[in-house]
Amino acid sequence: METVGGDERGTTERVLTLLGLLQQRQVWTGPELADQLGVTPRTVRRDVERLRALGYPVHAIQGVGGGYQLGPGQDLPPLLLDDEEAIATAVSLLASAGGAVAGAGDAALRALTKLDRVLPTRLRHEVRALSGAVESFGGGRTPVDPDVLMTLARACRDEVEAGFDYPSGGEVRRRRVEPYRLVASDRRWYLLAYDLDRDDWRSFRVDRMTGVSARTWRFRPRAMPDAAAYVQESVASRVYPHQARFLVHAPAGTVRAQIPASAAVVRERAGDRCEVLSGGGSLDFVLMHVLLLGHDFEVLDPPELTSRCRVLAEKLLSAGSGSAAQESARRRS
């Protein structure tokens, strides 16, 4: 990628413009390109050779109606990106890495790594801020302010404290944190951080933050929990007043396909079984969701949920018996 200063930078920008023109329509004549670029036809020929040397198959068509044409190639040539295109590409890859495009996460992260290696110094840190501070456990999510994401990503990268206003208990309070990772769930962006005022790890929804800023005060990194697992458990259970654990008699992959990543944590267990951790406004609500999965299961925690299973089972049996009695009476009549 050519991104140096002076005449070379001017040449690179002109070649980028030439490539863009060739992609806009099928055929350009030499004079037309020269007029568009503000150079001589001879310079156009040199720039075409530069594109060919980089692997772009630019064909020269002779005769009336001829000119230059960008054709398909056998190999993928190197990309030429200006500053804005490089950052936009990184943001798009970041969205895929976060799960917005099914199955694209690993490829997107590899592409981000390659992009980072060839970017000039002035842009490399921007991309590292995006790729190095993001983890994921799900798919497409609610959009957030990209400037806020960038500010938090830089703070994660540079290991500096961050501050933001955040709603809690019906009021908005200023939070002062050590930011560690941005985590993309199947619905939203979260920040895993160490809350300095509460002296504990916390996860924060990025879309709820306002007044986000990064300080210059650096912190010594602490031993961090698994970011994606911590945030997923927070989203699926810890934010609710009631939590429950179940042993489900089905493979983890099967159960994960039935439950959104933000609704429950599914852990593999031996013998084609799995552990499901979830939360809700009531234990009955959580219990019914697991029941509707259609698999045999056992209650692991809390102990009082076992008695609720019996109560609900009796209600279901009673409801079924009532229906059977009504049907029998209807037939007799």
UniProtKB/TrEMBL annotation:
Residues 11-70 form the HTH deoR-type domain. It comes from the Bacteria. Keywords: DNA-binding, Transcription, Transcription regulation. Signal peptide: none annotated. The keyword Transcription applies. Pfam families: HTH_11, WCX, WYL. The keyword Transcription applies. This is YafY family protein. It comes from Nonomuraea antimicrobica.
